[in-house]
Design a protein that fits this description.
The complex is a heterodimer of chains A (about 150) and B (about 60).
Chain A lengths: L30 H19 L15 H6 L53 H26 L1
Chain B lengths: L20 E5 L2 E4 L10 H6 L14
Antiparallel strand pairs in B: 1-2
Classes of the chains: A mainly alpha (about 150), B mainly beta (about 60).
């Protein structure tokens, strides 16, 4: 246990990042109904190689792709806000013409995984968005000054 | 028009988006949607003085 603040003494948190699940299920099923079955399958799979796993569980929380969409707001449960493909990177992230961290609304900036260089909790999209914001602010100040002296 | 006071909007009660720590059971906490912090750029950690804001990175032995 590296961080004792996560669980009471002698108890632990096991975090499982499980791939791959379809974000959208066939029309008759929803993740609301399928979640519990998926959890059981995952626990069974781990218990095959770690036999005391299931018996050690005190409680659990599971987030399906639907839950990730509802709560943190990840569309389709996509932690990267759009696939990391060559046609969706660099100036094409999130879309061509909008790759400079400026949103179509003046003064509203974008960052996070949907902007270059995508996810992974690097802090870089926010860093770049702040850089562009400061650049706009300096330009605005220069323009104001030029207007005042004109 | 350029507003100098930034405003942050969050759609949920807990701020932090997908990089949030939650108490998912009484006395049990975890990063519920993010599984990595190893890519966080040291340059940004220093520039924002995140240690002063409570950031402490614990390295796996």
């Amino acid at each position: 246990m590296i961080d004792p603040s996560l669980a009471p003494p002698g108890q632990h948190v096991a975090s499982l990042f499980c791939q791959y699940f379809a974000p959208e299920l066939p029309a008759v099923r929803s993740w609301q109904d399928a979640r519990a079955k998926a959890v059981e399958t995952i626990i069974d799979t781990i218990t095959e190689v770690a036999p005391n796993f299931r018996g050690s569980i005190l409680g659990q929380m599971a987030l399906s792709s639907m839950d990730l969409e509802t709560k943190p707001g990840l569309v389709g449960g996509d932690i990267f806000h759009g696939q990391i493909r060559l046609d969706q990177l660099f100036s094409a992230r999130p879309a061509l013409g909008h790759g400079d961290y400026r949103s179509p609304i003046a003064g509203l900036y974008m960052c996070g995984s949907s902007t270059h260089p995508d996810g992974g909790v690097t802090g870089v999209p926010g860093h770049n968005a702040a850089r562009e914001l400061l650049r706009d602010r300096r330009r605005h100040a220069r323009n104001n000054k030029a207007r005042a002296t004109a | 028009m350029f507003m100098t006071d930034p405003t942050q909007f969050d759609a949920v009660i807990i701020g932090g988006g997908a990089a949030v720590t939650e108490e998912f059971l009484p006395a049990f906490r975890n990063s519920t949607a993010s599984y990595s912090v190893s890519l966080l750029k040291p340059k940004i950690v220093r520039a924002m003085d995140l240690a002063r804001h409570g950031l402490e990175l614990k390295l796996r032995p």
